[in-house]
Design brief:
With about 350 residues, this protein is an alpha+beta fold. The protein has one domain: BirA Bifunctional Protein, domain 2, CATH 3.30.930.10. About 35% of the residues lie in helices and about 20% in strands. Strands 2-1-3-4-5-9-8-7-6 form a 9-stranded mixed beta sheet, sandwiched between helices. Strand 7 and strand 8 form a beta hairpin. Bound molecules: biotin (BTN). The site of biotin has 22 residues, from helix 5, strand 5, strand 8 and strand 9. Belongs to the biotin--protein ligase family.
Length: about 350
């Protein structure tokens, strides 16, 4: 069976206090979130995490507080990426919003400018230690609060090496597919990264590789931590479901320039927020009675480890080779077999 194809459409101390302030705001918002009714209705799809109505997290006054202090911390896996990070900071040309939107102030910090790379809410050290890629995820931009990670990578595509990723604790202009808003509270893993491709016939299939890498990363992380497997499945074309509820979504957008497709891939995965749908850690807690077992750092590193392998196979051998694996993660089918990527 073949897939139906759908087109894709400073000073160290000052810096540390900015991080601490933003983190405190994020924590405060999380507290509010937990203690207020989760108002997730939707624009037009049944996305559990897509919402048209302002929630406490995307409401003007409070979010403006974060938005006026938008910071990005640049983490590199090696000295090579650190050097790139320094160049990006010196050039100081990063954009946060698209053409029609007002440009917001953005403060770029290097990891050497914050007290400890473990002090922010995203723990970059375990992430970098677990990352085993040659390209994807090696330059990581982290922010406590951003309009959208997708905008950061797509609007600044050429300023980063291919494979650069941006992760945020919260987004206040999170984008879903179509005109949907992706509600982006603390506890949801939200990241975007860049990919470049030359063969336009393959570009529409990339979203399947992005989705597949996510289910593989979840499986591998559960396996590595000795946790039971959670049955996260791909609902075509690119949603992730757990026990009949949407827990994740994929957004891929592309532009064509200099004979290359510049693709921004965005992933939202509900790890910890158990309302209004479900979360991976809630499912694990039901099975094991232990809470918060999957961290964003674990899944993100496993994601890029998995994506890089799958992407290589996809580029050089085609999606056909991945189909069996893909269908095994599909909500709509059940296929038994083994696929080796070695
Ligand atoms: O199901 C969908 O509609 C796709 C949702 C994609 C959401 C992710 S969260 C990280 C990245 N940044 C965004 O603004 N959107 C994507």
């Amino acid at each position: 069976m073949r897939l139906a194809i759908r087109h894709l459409p400073s000073t160290p101390n000052a810096a540390a206090s900015v991080v601490a302030a933003a983190t405190a705001v994020a924590a405060f918002l999380f507290f509010r979130r937990r203690h207020s009714r989760y108002s997730s209705t939707k624009h037009s799809s049944t996305t559990g995490l897509s919402a048209p109505t302002p929630s406490p997290l995307i409401d003007g006054a409070v979010m403006k507080d974060i938005s006026s202090h938008s910071i990005l911390v640049l983490f590199g896996k090696s000295s090579q990426e650190d050097q790139i990070a320094r160049t990006i900071k010196v050039k100081d040309t990063l954009r946060l919003f698209g053409e029609d939107d007002e440009q917001e102030e953005i403060r770029v910090l290097l990891m050497s400018e914050i007290d400890s790379i473990d002090s922010p809410t995203f723990r970059a050290k375990p992430y970098m230690d677990a990352l085993a890629t040659d390209r994807f995820g090696r330059l990581l931009l982290w922010s406590p609060g951003l309009p959208s990670t997708h905008d950061v990578v797509s609007k600044n595509f050429c300023k980063f090496p291919v494979g650069t990723a941006c992760v945020a604790d919260v987004q206040y202009k999170g984008r879903g597919r179509g005109k949907n808003v992706w509600e982006s509270p603390v506890g949801c893993l939200m990241f975007s990264f860049t990919v470049q491709m030359e063969d336009g016939r393959k570009v529409p299939l990339l979203q399947y590789v992005v989705s597949l890498a996510l289910t593989e990363a979840i499986k591998e992380t559960c396996h590595a931590k000795g946790l039971p497997q959670i049955d996260v499945r791909i609902k075509w074309p690119n949603d992730l479901y757990l026990n009949g509820l949407k827990v994740g979504g994929i957004l891929c957008t592309s532009t064509y320039t200099s004979k290359k497709f510049n693709i921004s891939a965005g992933v939202g995965l509900n790890l910890d927020n158990d309302k209004p749908t479900s979360s991976l850690n809630a499912a694990l807690q039901e099975m094991t009675s232990v809470s918060h077992q999957l961290g964003r750092e674990d899944i993100l590193a496993a994601y890029f480890n998995s994506f890089e392998k799958l992407f290589e196979v996809f580029l050089h051998q085609g999606f056909e080779v991945l189909e069996e694996l893909y269908y095994r993660s599909w909500l709509h089918s059940c296929i038994v077999g083994t696929v080796s990527l070695e």
